[in-house]
Write a structure and sequence with these properties.
By secondary structure, the protein is an alpha/beta fold. About 35% of the residues lie in helices and about 20% in strands. The protein has an eight-stranded mixed β-sheet with strand order 2-3-5-4-1-6-7-8. Strand 2 and strand 3 form a beta hairpin. Keywords: Hydrolase.
Length: about 250
């Protein structure tokens, strides 16, 4: 169980995908290449990004930022970056905790998160991604949320232009019906360009094949679960959305 004050912040680190534009030149042979990209947060913390791209794609191509689940920058987040690269995008899985930390234990994940949140100003800058970036009107082409948090401390203001696709599990016990209703009202009041997809039978974490194991581990875990059909349908929705926003 998580304390309510930490619970909503923890959920903000579920998987989000935010789109930016990056101009990169490919090489001749087709292969998915990966690189470690070191960078720093506003508070000076060393962050370790995982960058993936297809070196056969020539000329500029859309860029995608992948924001990991609360477990940290693990193999799942990195695989999603490679999956996106295989679709022709330049993808970078970013690091929210620093030093590429990741874990499979809820207590460790909570400790990582709490440590990162000690400096509230720096934490706001580091964790302000996904739907919150869209709410602020950051210059993104679009945002996709997979089983993400819908709560926020900074509600969208009328006139936001960033298109949003929200893929939500109808059986997600970690995001309440009240959270969903409040999110939809917030978006409607802001006249936002968003599509909300509720997937029958899907739990929180439905895109992660490790979710069942993480939920039922010896140490106990959150109420999450993998759903192959939901994973595939939401990924397909994302591709349609990308074609629309990227052209």
């Amino acid at each position: 169980m998580f304390a309510t004050s930490n619970y909503q912040k923890e959920l903000t680190m579920r998987v989000w995908i935010a789109m930016i534009m990056m101009g990169l030149t490919g090489l001749a042979q087709a292969a998915i290449k990966t690189e470690q990209i070191d960078y720093k947060s506003a508070d000076g913390t060393k962050l370790v990004g995982y960058y993936a791209y297809d070196d056969a794609v020539k000329g500029p191509r859309p860029g995608v930022l992948v924001v990991h689940e609360w477990w940290g920058l693990n193999d799942y987040a990195k695989r999603r970056a490679r999956d996106l690269a295989a679709l022709g995008y330049s993808a970078m899985a970013i690091d929210m905790y620093g030093e590429g930390k990741n874990t499979e234990h809820p207590k460790d994940a909570m400790a990582f998160m709490q440590a990162a949140l000690k400096d509230s100003d720096a934490a706001d800058k580091r964790f302000d991604a996904g739907l919150d970036a869209a709410r602020r009107g950051e210059p993104l082409l679009g945002v996709v949320s997979f089983h993400g948090a819908l709560v926020t401390n900074t509600p969208a203001k009328p006139g936001i232009k960033v298109p949003m696709l929200v893929e939500h599990g109808a059986k997600d016990s970690m995001v309440t019906a009240e959270n969903v209703a409040a999110f939809k009202k917030e978006m409607d009041d802001a006249k936002a360009d968003y599509k909300f997809v509720s997937i029958d039978g899907a739990k929180h974490g439905f895109t992660n094949p490790d979710a069942d194991r993480l939920s039922h581990g010896d140490h106990g875990g959150p109420d999450i679960g993998y759903d192959k059909a939901a994973d595939q349908s939401s990924w397909s929705d994302m591709q349609v959305f990308f074609k629309k926003i990227f052209g």
